[in-house]
Amino acid sequence: REPSIDLLEAFVEHWKGITHYYIGSTDENTPAKKTDIPWRLKQMLDILVYEERQQTAAGEAGPCLEYLLQHKILETLCTLGKAEYPPGMRQQVFQFFSKILAQVQHPLLHYLNVHRPVQKLLRLGGTVPGSQTEKEEVQFTTVLCSKIQQDPALLTYILEGKKMVSRKKSSKEPITLPREAASVQDKDHAHSKAPDMSPCGARALSSQLPAETEEPEGVVGESTLITALIGLCKSKKGRVALKAQENLLLLVSVASPAAATYLVQSSPCCRVVTEHLCQLYQSLPPFLDPADIAALEGISWRLPSAPSDEASFPGKEALAAFLGWFDYCDHLITEAHTVVAEALAKAVAEKFFVEILQPHLLHVSEQSVLTSTALLTAMLRQLRSPVLLREAVAFLLGTDPQPAAPDDGPCTLCAHLIGHCDHLSDEISITTLRLFEELLQKPHEQVIHGLVLCNLEGRHYVARGSPEPESYEDTLDLEEDPYFTDGFLNNSFQPSTKPPRAPATNSDGKTAVTEIVNSFLCLVPEEAKTSAFLEETGYDTYVHDAYGLFQECSSRVAPWGWPLGPTPLDPHEPERPFFEGHFLRMLFDRMSRILEQPYSLNLQVTSVLSRLALFPHPLIHEYLLDPYINLINLAPGCRSLFSVLVRVIGDLMQRIQRVPQFSGKLLLVRKQLMGQVPGEQLDHQTLLQGVVVLEEFCKELAAIAFVKFPPHGPHLHLSPPREGHV
Questions:
Q1: Is 28 exposed, middle or buried (0-12, 13-18, 19+ CB in 10 A)?
Q2: 41, 44, 52, 49: which is closest to 11 by C-alpha?
């Protein structure tokens, strides 16, 4: 680097030294790093960087850089790297390309003699899965993605490889010649100032390379920066895969609309990302325990491997890989340009949700239904992108759900899934109920509207022309219900447990929250209650949890602009038949069988109903939590949550008479469920466990009613969540 040194002469001398190695060397086993090739490449790079710093006119290429471009040195290096001669040459070529693109500030990728060998090198890297040059390949793609991020117009230069290769097919020249002819040409050029890298000179140098390095036709056109990155994302080396994913993320987040459109329309980006997701799903074992799937938490694309402290099970690594890639797809869609995000979300919906997942959800095999439903629940739990959530909701519920009729058959995926909640297999029922519970926690208005609200609009569950009662308590006349016996009324509404007299309604016309709370607390008769014997504090233990969940739910739905109260009824409007919808009908049917169902199933049913009751919509509150509407003004033939609970209590009072020592056995079962005493099989155990769940559920509903409408204070107005996150 002395000022007296001629940079161009030194640059040419180093390049000549590299080419002469191939002319004179006969040892094909010496690794490239033990030759002088790495040193000469470094000298050439240093000369280019130094020359650029000495340039007085910015933006002009120096003599050395012009020589590199005119003599197609990068093309030749790419050919040498492909031949992998000497061994390890490919690694040296990747490193040289990465460094020259990163350190030389002059724009290079616009030149044909740069971006064409770059395309060839990308195809070269993607041909050998698990190759020894993965580290160098991912460094190379990192430089390219950074350059594209700085100048999105470069995207077309790097991704146009397919057209370039198709043009090359007709004019491709052979790369091998007889060794005698090549040696004559090489000797002629050895005495010149620089080796001639014209087509003839290139053929002479290529004659030293194995003939089998010819590119296979029909494959090269599909290999681009995108497919190279996807190939590196599949690497078994965690750091390589992570860096490749970060590079692809950088690529899809380009700010230029034109580049984003080109990425969608002229590259295989959306297709290859979705194909890998489908491949990972199809590689999962057919038998996965839903409990194992639900327990595998904390999987992210940055840390796709399952935590080592969790219990191992067959298929754990494959499951972690699939959930990790789904999380990556979700993150890609969140961070990508809008054009890319929309296209990628639609590709995931069409190619994965509809073509791969839906047949498994509707399969005749119970194991297939069980596994696919549990996997879909895990995916929903991870989903954060609003765009992908919209596609998932459209996949599950349809694009425009309408109020259903009681005799409608299961013609949609949603109808089939609701049917699975009332399946003969309790395990399928529980797993599908978990899916809906997860869906209800997603911030998409179409979920609660399609499942519940579209059937409650119009308030046809309220009888038209019903007189307003003077007092809610005075009109609570249950003797007319055939399910209730004298014993039930005497035990459940004794003076000590009757709610204190309070105004029937608040100033805004709603039933007083005190009466709502006490209505649920007094619903279960005293002989069926056991929490007081274990020094529990009744529904108060649920208030803290309910308050937190209600705050979270209110924050989630705040942007939807729900009204604060129900629309007043028109007394002159004729009554219309009311149907609560297939979803609520299924939940009410399940709730009516709470005394006959397994404990775990009852827990899941009540959990979903609690999630519904938390929504701060006036129609949901009125229909699910207002006993006054439910018992006094409920339209003929209609069911509601409270009316279902009342009939369950009536059924319970008749069953109690047939169970000897009911109270003692009930207390023992509660202690077993709490782990205070060893579990042992008892007579009527399903019934007794159902009673425990029923008591706790009533307390939970009372707590939800309390936190939704405090006795003294306005409605809670909470800030909406941050945009862009689910």
A1: exposed
A2: 44
Query: Which residues contact residue 261 at a Cβ distance below 8 angstroms, ignoring those fewer than 6 apart?
Result: 339
Spans of all domains in the chain = 7-124, 268-305+314-455, 509-568+575-708
Beta bridge partners of 462: 634
Main-chain phi, psi angles of 303, to 5 degrees: -140, 70
Structure tokens at 370: 């069980």
Cα–Cα separations (whole angstroms), residue 563 to 558, 616, 617, 671, 715: 11, 9, 7, 44, 12
Structure tokens at 602: 């009852």
Q: What is the pLDDT of residue 160?
A: 67
Distances (CA, A) of 175 to 76, 222, 506, 561: 12, 22, 91, 70
Contact 691, 666 (CB under 8 A): yes
pLDDT of residue 164: 41
Query: Nearest Cα to 358, choosing from 319, 350, 451?
Result: 350
447-465 tens-digit pLDDT: 999 999 999 998 888 887 6
Question: Could you tell me how many residues make up the chain?
Answer: 726
- C-beta neighbour count of 78 within 10 angstroms: 22
Q: Which parts of the chain have pLDDT scores under 50?
A: 1, 162-204, 206-221, 468-505, 507-509, 712-726
Token pair, residue 114, equals 């740069």
The tokens 């803290």 sit on which residue? 544
Helix (H, G, I), strand (E, B) or coil at 442: coil
Compute the distance between CA of residue 642 and CA of residue 632 in angstroms, rounded to an integer.
11
Of 661, 678, 671, nearest in space to 692 by CA? 671
Q: 541-577 pLDDT, tens per residue?
A: 789 999 999 999 999 999 999 998 888 887 777 778 8
CA atoms within 13 A on the CB side of 641: 25
Nearest partner of 425 among 293, 684, 591, 601, judged by Cα: 601
- 596 with 426: CB under 8 angstroms? no
Could you tell me how many helices (H) and strands (E) the chain has, helices first? Answer: 35, 0
Query: Which residue type sits at 14?
Result: H
Is residue 505 packed enough to be buried (19+ CB in 10 Å), middle (13-18) or exposed (0-12)?
Answer: middle
